[in-house]
Design a protein that fits this description.
Layout: E1 2-10, E2 13-21, H1 27-34, H2 51-57, E3 65-66, E4 73-77, E5 85-92
Antiparallel strand pairs: 1-2, 1-5, 3-4, 4-5
């Protein structure tokens, strides 16, 4: 299992979380399915309604791009959200 770190840029905030999966192609969906901040009372005001559902619907492996000149780092946009969101993720070395 590999560890991937996700950086979500949304509405002026940066939200960082991690997920472990067997391969890179599984990482975005696994991360989106477990990203629960919008359901927490403290964070609800920062996220649009049905955020997680729309985030999962936005996952398309064809639009995930590798960043140039950076190893093991990818980016994509959550195009189903009402407001812009960019997600970067990187394969992370554990110590």
């Amino acid at each position: 299992m590999a560890l991937y770190t996700f950086f979500l840029e949304y509405e002026g905030g940066t939200y960082i979380s991690q997920v472990k999966v067997s391969k890179k192609e599984l990482a975005p969906k696994a991360w989106a399915m477990q990203f629960d901040l919008p359901s927490r009372k403290r964070y609800r005001k920062f996220f649009e309604p049905k955020f997680q559902e729309k985030l999962v619907e936005s996952l398309d492996l064809n639009i995930i791009i590798a960043l140039e000149n950076v190893k093991n780092t990818w980016s994509f946009s959550a195009y189903r959200l009402d407001r812009p969101a960019t997600i970067h993720f990187t394969k992370t070395v554990e110590k």
